[in-house]
Every structure is written in structure tokens, then in C-alpha cells.
Design goal:
This protein is of the alpha/beta class. The protein has helices at 13-25, 65-74, 83-88, 132-138, 140-155, 163-171, 173-188, 198-203, 209-220, 243-256, 303-309, 317-325, 376-379, 404-407, 410-423, 454-462, 472-475, 481-497, 503-506, and strands spanning 5-9, 29-33, 45-48, 51-54, 108-112, 115-119, 122-125, 235-239, 260-262, 266-272, 278-285, 288-293, 296-299, 328-338, 360-363, 372-375, 391-399, 432-445, 467-469. 45% of the residues are buried.
Length: 521
């Protein structure tokens, strides 16, 4: 009897989740084709002499019970203090019967989320709140102006056509211009006036200055009301050795269950018949070009590349034009191993070496191109070879492939990054021990140029009967990791039930209310 097969393009969170679900819930055999020599995509972990780098920073949290159950299925939760908590006598959030991270490697740590903004050589809470710290750092006059601007924005709401409109409606013009406008331009290389409001609904959700103030008051007086907005979640799960540990476990389980995961397998083209059904994919591998026929094709490859790989007659010219014009933001991260940090830890949170407790810091100093700074010691002490005597940093730069930053040599860029960090008084350049650079193309799908017409491209792709677009790049949507996984689950369920429409797959994280309450179904 013929067994059905599915080809899954991309071995990131979406692709691996799809393969795992096929094996656990259907009789369809999946084959994952990953272009890179590793799995995990941007969620991978890289190891440099025992110092592990999380590319981009990946907190594991979700309001969807199915995703939480799936994570727990692969890695157990922490049941005993981690190395730093034990050394510092710091309170841990533990699960009864959970794993001891000091004894086993396969474990989800439960970590405290601390993220702040660094601006004017001072730390501000993230998200911005009307706290005493903010008032002290900005001054009463500036805070009064921000408050009046916020009231004005609420009284005169703008039609939300751009990201600038979206942010001003929620924060007021003064706060927008202080904390959001220039940083957004640094991240995306475009003014918020040129970016669609959809970006805000994807990443900022229901957060506003008013809701942030309400959250601050609730915390101050001890009220609890669920998990709050996505950006306000204060704890998260994290694999002991970074996010790549989970995806490597996924890949191992897929192989154990009878699926295949092929790395260094670059999909070059698809053969599509006259009935708009993909019959096979042509793949470039170390063994040469191979052809993979299948019943179903799930793609997490960038839509620009997917459209280019499809037969000429598979998409109308208009859809190809939209796909070709979709923009991306590329990414460079530099790992710096340093002896110490210069900023003092003025929080009440104890840390190894008394470093600042932040997982990452949003760098809003206008004098540098640096966008964010990760402190890997605070993500997991096990990411760092010697967490008591060194600090392992990730400096994140947003760029376009081919620009001046992208073309700099590794050595020159590492020196440039270290100098930038020293120039804003975060490190002393003399304390740098070692540095590495990693370049990630098409890291972030962007919301401008032909993106405003993406619904036409989506409709054309949906006409290809056995093609399912999943994941961040597969849908050109700036999804969180759990949402990428949910698109994969929705695709598998659609195939398993014979559902013709693909709306449920595209609708993951598309509704503005999605993050406002815990999902139970």
C-alpha cells in the first residue's frame, strides 16, 4: 500500500514541528530538507570553544497549551537550582519531579526575564513605564511633556496606515520620538513612516503606555491578572545549552520515529503540473542533484526564493513581482568574551560577578550602530565556559546584505563592534579576550515595499493545492517561535483532515486579540 510522503523545506522551528507532528499524528512520512549544515535556523546555538551563542535571543514562552505540552514532551522542566542560583542562593522557580540541571543536560531552565533600554548612558525599564526610574532619568519636565502628548494622542487617534501612526496612537508623539522612532529606523533601515502598521500588530500587540501604566500599578499593589501582554512576561523557559539544543532533540526524535532530516540540502526548483499540484522538488546536495517526489510540500523558505523556484506557469506574473519585491533585514552578531562589564548592578537581583542582570539590552545611543546587546551569562550559566570569571556577550547589528557592515572582514568588524561598546562605557576594550562574527541573511521579514500586496501572492500560492506555507519566512511574517510552530501544526492538521482552505494556517498570529488571553484549544 502506498504510503504518503511530505517534503518539508527548512529545518527550523516550523519545519521540524511539522515533521514531528506528521509522525506522531498521521501515517505520512516526512523528509526535512535543510539548506544549512545544521538545524534550528536562526534559533540554532553555535559553540565557540565552550561559549555558546544564541543567534538573536530566543525566550521560550507561549500562551498556547499545545505548544507548552510539546516543549515539555521533548525536554523536562527544571526541578533543582541551576549553577548560578545555587552559588548565589537565589530563589528558583522549580517543578516538582523536574530535572536537575547540575546533573543532566536535557532540561528546560526557568529564567527571569530582564530587558532594559540603554539611553543617555542610563538604564530604562523595557517596556517603558511611568516608574520612578524613568522619571528620575528623564526629569519631571520631560515626563510631563510625554504625559500631555499621550493624552493628546488618545483624544486624536490617527488612521493607522503606517507604523508611526500605530505607535503614536499607543504611546503619544513625544515618547515615540524619544524611544521608538530612531531605534526602529536603526533596526529596519527605514523610517516608521515607511513601514506598514501590520508590524506593530505582529510585535507590539496590545501594548500601550496606558496598559504599561496599569501593569505597573498592578505590580506595585500586588494585583495579578494573568500573564499580561507578551512583552511584559517576566519569566521564560530556556534549554540548558540554548535553543539549538531543543531543535537538535527534535531532529533526533524525527529520525527515531522514521522520518528523515537532510542537512546541506538546497531546494532549487519544484515541478508543478497543469492542475497546480507539485509533483517533485529538485534538491542540490553533496551527492549532486536529487529529485524528491511527494504528496505534500510544506515550505518555510523565504517567499522570494519559493516563487523563484516554482515552475514559470505556477504563479501569475503579478504574484512573482510581489514576491521578488518583498524586503528582508539581514543580521550580524558578534560574540565578545570579556573580563567584566563597566555598568554597575544597581538592581536587587544577584548575579555572578555582580554584572547587570539583563538578558538583553536595547541600545538606543544614537552614536553607535549597535542595536541590541545580549548577556549570555544571564540566559543560562551553562552557555559560558567560565561564567564566574568572564562575561560572554552578543552584539547585534541590523543591516542589508552587501552593505558596508556586511562586507567588512570578520577581524575588522569584531574590532569595530568592540570599539562601539567601549565608546558607550559598557566595556573597556582592554578587557576583550576573544571575538567571533556570524552573518545571518534574511533574518527578519520586513513590512514595506511590495508587502502591502502580499495578500495577492498568498492567494496565488494557495492555488497550488498541495503547497503549505509555514514559519516566519515561509509566510513573510515576523512571528515568534511558538507562532511559527503553530503554523506547522495547523498545516499538518489541515492535511490530516483534508481541509481545502489554508486560512487557518495563515491566520496564526494574524488576529490582534491573539495574545490577549491564554489559548486553550
Amino acid at each position: 500500500m502506498h504510503k504518503r510522503h511530505a517534503i518539508i523545506i527548512g529545518g527550523g522551528p516550523a519545519g521540524l514541528t511539522a515533521a514531528y507532528y506528521f509522525l506522531k499524528h498521521t501515517d505520512i512520512r516526512p523528509i526535512v530538507l535543510e539548506r544549512e549544515p545544521f538545524v534550528g535556523g536562526i534559533s540554532r546555538t553555535m559553540n565557540f570553544d565552550g561559549n555558546r551563542m544564541d543567534i538573536g535571543g530566543h525566550r521560550f514562552f507561549s500562551k498556547d497549551d499545545e505548544i507548552l505540552s510539546l516543549w515539555r514532551e521533548l525536554l523536562p522542566e527544571q526541578g533543582a537550582p541551576a549553577f548560578d542560583d545555587k552559588i548565589l542562593g537565589r530563589e528558583s522557580v522549580l517543578t516538582d519531579g523536574g530535572a536537575n540541571p547540575e546533573e543532566v543536560d536535557e532540561v528546560f531552565l526557568n529564567r527571569r526575564r530582564v530587558s532594559r533600554i540603554f539611553y543617555r548612558r542610563k538604564f530604562f525599564s523595557y517596556p517603558i513605564s511611568l516608574s520612578l526610574e524613568t522619571i528620575r532619568n528623564l526629569g519631571l519636565t520631560e515626563m510631563f511633556s510625554i504625559g500631555m502628548s499621550f493624552i493628546g494622542a488618545k483624544l486624536h487617534q490617527r488612521d493607522e496606515r503606517t507604523l508611526e501612526d500605530f505607535m503614536i496612537n499607543r504611546f503619544g508623539r513625544r515618547l515615540y520620538e524619544t524611544f521608538f522612532r530612531d531605534y526602529t529606523t536603526k533596526v529596519w533601515g527605514r523610517s516608521p513612516q515607511e513601514i506598514g502598521a501590520d508590524w506593530g500588530s505582529q510585535r507590539i500587540k496590545g501594548l500601550s503606555l496606558g496598559k504599561t501604566l496599569i501593569d505597573f500599578v498592578k505590580k506595585t499593589f500586588g494585583f495579578k491578572d494573568g500573564a499580561g501582554e507578551t512583552s511584559l512576561i517576566e519569566r521564560f523557559f530556556y534549554p540548558k545549552f540554548g535553543p539549538g539544543q531543543l531543535w537538535e532533540k527534535f531532529a533526533a526524535e524525527i529520525k527515531r520515529l522514521g522520518g528523515e532530516v537532510l542537512t546541506s540540502a538546497h531546494v532549487k526548483s519544484f515541478r508543478v503540473d497543469a492542475n497546480k499540484i507539485i509533483r517533485a522538488a529538485t534538491v542540490e546536495t553533496a551527492a549532486g542533484k536529487l529529485t524528491f517526489p511527494a504528496d505534500y510540500f510544506l515550505s518555510s523558505m523565504p517567499l522570494t526564493e519559493l516563487a523563484d523556484a516554482l515552475d514559470d506557469d505556477a504563479l501569475p506574473a503579478r504574484a512573482r513581482e510581489i514576491a521578488k519585491g518583498l524586503p528582508y533585514r539581514d543580521f550580524i552578531t558578534v560574540g565578545l568574551l570579556v573580563d567584566k562589564l563597566l555598568p554597575q548592578n544597581h538592581t536587587k537581583i544577584k548575579t555572578l560577578g555582580d554584572i547587570v542582570p539583563d538578558c538583553w539590552i536595547y541600545i538606543q545611543e544614537p552614536s553607535v550602530k549597535l542595536g541590541r546587546l545580549q548577556i549570555f551569562n544571564n540566559w543560562s550559566p551553562y552557555l559560558v565556559a567560565d561564567p564566574q570569571n568572564s562575561v560572554w556577550l552578543g552584539l547585534e547589528y541590523f543591516c542589508n546584505a552587501g552593505d558596508d557592515m556586511w562586507q567588512m572582514s570578520d577581524d575588522d568588524f569584531i574590532k569595530f563592534a568592540a570599539q562601539e561598546l567601549a565608546s558607550i562605557d559598557i566595556i573597556d576594550a582592554a578587557d576583550v579576550r576573544h571575538g567571533v562574527r556570524v552573518k545571518v541573511p534574511k533574518a527578519y521579514p520586513a513590512y514595506f515595499d511590495t508587502y502591502e500586496n502580499i495578500s495577492e501572492l498568498r492567494a496565488a500560492l494557495d492555488d497550488i493545492k498541495n503547497l503549505y506555507c509555514i514559519g516566519r519566512n515561509g509566510q513573510h511574517r515576523y512571528n515568534n517561535m511558538d507562532h511559527s510552530m503553530l503554523t506547522a501544526i495547523a498545516a499538518v492538521k489541515s492535511i490530516a483532515t483534508g481541509t481545502v482552505t489554508k486560512a487557518d494556517i495563515w491566520n496564526v498570529n494574524a488576529e490582534k486579540t491573539y495574545h490577549e488571553g491564554k489559548q486553550n484549544d
